[in-house]
Amino acid sequence: MRLVFSAEGQSWPIKLTGDAERTRNALLRSLPLDLQLHTPKIAGSHIYWHAPFVEDVEGATHVLDAPAGAFIYWPVRQFLEITFAPLQAENAQVTVLGVLDAPIEGIASLAATLKHEQGRRILSGRLTPGEGTGPAPAQTLPLPEDILSARLSLWAKCPDDIARVTTSRAIMHPAGPVFAAEGEARVLHELLWWIRAARGQRDERVLRQTAGLALNKTATRLRDFCHMDETPALLFRLERAMDEPLDFGLLIDEAILVAGRIGAWVDLLIPWNDINEAFRAALD
Asked: Which of 112, 137, 147, 171 has the most CB atoms around its CB within 10 Å?
């Protein structure tokens, strides 16, 4: 079973391997998938994009044991990644979905371009089924239509209120609002994963209240500090949903998908390599 990863006018085959059937089916249901590629900030030698599904780890491989060319799913981060060299120190368990079926030098070259271009332009890609790879059965989620449609819109296109956050030239803008927004969304995303992991171990009412407070806090900061409107409205809607008689497992996954995508769009605005070089220069 194969997939085809394409970006910057090139294509690379990926061979799906292993027994991670649940994650593999979630991936296949999402195909074909348009991608926005991200450069890593901590682990180093990989390229990644955000996965439009939420699954627990399967087959638990330590991320530092993933070989060069591995195609992995990283729960909690909610990334799909292709590695091209040993990663820097990280401590996490990941799901290995397959392996790049091509020389890794092409991915390493793409990663070098991505490192220097992120924040200047979005490097887009596409993941499609290879020949003989059929789709997995579709899923229907019993959640309110307004939430589902807003999440699909968020995944399809960067919201205008996120895109324009880089346009202000007020005092310490746009860096202040951009970094505040990225941090708020990332912490919300991680906290929602923590809440998800606590299902069955803690009172669901407490988990719903905790998720609602976290959603409210992030929405308020994005609205009041970062001058957004459309994006906070979806977070406030999810906060209200935590008090509605909806399946909590489905609802927390939906909130994770939303928070992760918000963080992803903001991340793409940031020229991380330029900032890191300037930070090094200032310190040195």
From this structure: 147
Ranges of each domain in the chain: 2-129, 145-273
Q: What is the pLDDT of residues 238-262, one digit of tens each?
A: 999 999 999 999 999 999 999 999 9
Which of 25, 72, 26, 64 is CA-nearest to residue 47? Answer: 72
Residue with tokens 């030098």: 105
Q: What is the pTM of this model?
A: 0.94
First-residue to last-residue Cα distance in the chain: 50
Task: Give me 176's structure tokens.
Answer: 């202040």
DSSP reduced 3-state for 49:
strand
Round to whole Å and give the CA distance between 69 and 46: 9
Tell me: the pLDDT tens digits for 165-222?
999 999 999 999 999 999 999 999 999 999 999 999 999 999 999 999 999 999 999 9
Prior bond of 32 cis (ω within 30°): yes
Q: Using an 8 Å Cβ cutoff, are 152 and 55 in contact? A: no
Calculate the CA dihedral of residues 146, 149, 153, 155 and round it to 10 degrees: 110
Condensed to tens digits (0 to 9), the pLDDT of residues 23-42 reads 999 999 999 999 999 999 88
Please check whether residue 5 is in contact with residue 48, taking contact to mean a CB–CB distance below 8 angstroms.
no
Q: Which CATH number fits domain 2-129: 2.40.100.20, 3.30.420.40, 3.40.1010.20, 2.40.37.10?
A: 2.40.100.20
Q: Tell me the C-alpha distance between 91 and 134, whole Å.
A: 34
